[in-house]
């Protein structure tokens, strides 16, 4: 199975846009292509930024679960504002896996033993998640916050969820 992300498919949901409600640029979709049958299927179509905000990175877990990295500039939800890691459910909806809440002060940077020359203080909640990948054992998920260059190592128990 081949997975394809279309970052801007769908209808424009920005009420401030001159193209509001028209086809494209929308909030994105995820497709599967089965090479054996040449069948293209829409796995998920975002109808609004809350459901998914311009995914542009995708990873398939060793168990076949899909994880999507947003690149839409952050979304305000019950957890505040920020970019999210999300996955589609079998019912065609999405679930929240993680959300960036990284806000660094000069003190935070010093206490972490890092140099302010390389890491700048600021609000990084709108920094996109990129490069999600599982290690060969399938036990660890590695994912990065692009602007900061921070890599997170996340471990399961994967068998309890959709990943």
Automatic annotation (TrEMBL):
Ranges of Basic and acidic residues composition bias in the record: 9-25
Residue span of region Disordered: 1-30
Membrane-crossing residue ranges in chain numbering: none
Source organism superkingdom: Bacteria
Pfam families the record matches: PhoX
The protein's name: Phosphatase
Organism: Rubellimicrobium mesophilum DSM 19309
